[in-house]
Amino acid sequence: MSDLRVHKSYEEQISLDFSFNINDSTKEEYGTFSITANIDLSENYYYLFDVHEEDFGIFLGEYEDNKPILYKTPNIGGSLKIEQIILQPLERTVTLNGILKSSYKTVLKNDIIAVLSIDGLKNNDVPGEFFLETIGEALALRTEKRLKQAYFTYLTAIDSQTNFHLRDLFMYSELKDLKRMELSDKFRLNLKRFISNNEIEKVPLISRLLQLFNEHFATRNAIAHGIKRINVTASMIEDIEFLFLCVEMIANCQSAELPRIVDDYKLLS
User: How far apart are CA 13 and CA 68, in angstroms?
Assistant: First the structure.
């Protein structure tokens, strides 16, 4: 069974360089201040999909179970907390916005550390297959709610996926015309090969996949040729994700029977 995930979850401990909204008019070093930290993860990550705060606070050099102890309350009183995490998936940056109620001068003397749970694709884990890399980009665009760009990128991935699964036939000179086949015919040919069945319309799941393929590629062509304007919705994105994942699972299982797919991929566990 192939692992269909293009990203994994990681825990990162990051020392933060906070900026404070302090200016010449600030007369008191004690008070309530907005704080901001910008984190650039591009050195290690290719895409980011989600980020959550696991722990955050002032590090005073103390450890417990080999993990740093992070204080939310400065030793002079007050509090320190993150109130907002802004994720830029394609830029691979994270901005943390928070509130400090204390003495900013004292806090600046200590390390401030965030432990973040990061769902992403690391640079050294980028898939060799172009269609999987493109799916990662589409997921990042969806995370940014850029649905139209995500929609086109998903369809590009399915185009690439279709040709990828025919690569073993492209090598034969007798099948040189295969590359010039219509994409829809290539898609049908793949499904027939996956399940060794020429009458794929009689298979319920495959019949649904053919319907989705034809519907969404017709929509793509209509948008690309300026025939009509389409408002891409979340349900359209879900259709394409379903299409992509089902094709990969059928290819790997060599079956379009739901009990087999459910069992192989532990979909109900």
Answer: 9
The rounded distance, in Å, linking the Cα atoms of 267 and 269 is 6
Q: Is 207 helix (H, G, I), strand (E, B) or coil?
A: helix
Angle at 85 between CA 80 and CA 91, to 5 degrees: 135
Q: Report the alpha-carbon distance of residue 18 to residue 97 in Å, rounded.
A: 9
Cα separation, 249 vs 50, whole angstroms: 25
Cβ atoms of 6 and 136 within 8 Å: the answer is yes
For the record, the structure tokens of 149 come out as: 């760009």
Dist. CA 235–CA 39, nearest whole Å: 33
Cα distances from 192 to residues 80, 105, 109, 195, in angstroms, run: 60, 69, 66, 6
The alpha-helical segments, DSSP class H, found in 36-176 are 104-108, 130-143, 147-164, 167-170
> DSSP secondary structure string, 222-263?
HHHTTS------HHHHHHHHHHHHHHHHHHHHT---HHHHHH
The pLDDT tens digits for 29-61 are 677 878 899 999 999 999 999 999 999 888 888
All structural domains of the chain with their residue ranges: 8-125, 130-265
Spatial distance between the Cα atoms of 30 and 42, rounded to a whole number of angstroms: 35
Given a cut of 80, whether residue 20 has pLDDT beyond it is no
The pLDDT assigned to 166 comes to 95
pTM tops 0.90, yes or no: no
Q: How far apart are CA 88 and CA 237, in angstroms?
A: 20
pLDDT at residue 254 above 60?
yes
Q: How many CB atoms lie within 10 A of CB 80?
A: 22
Which DSSP symbol is given to 175? Answer: G
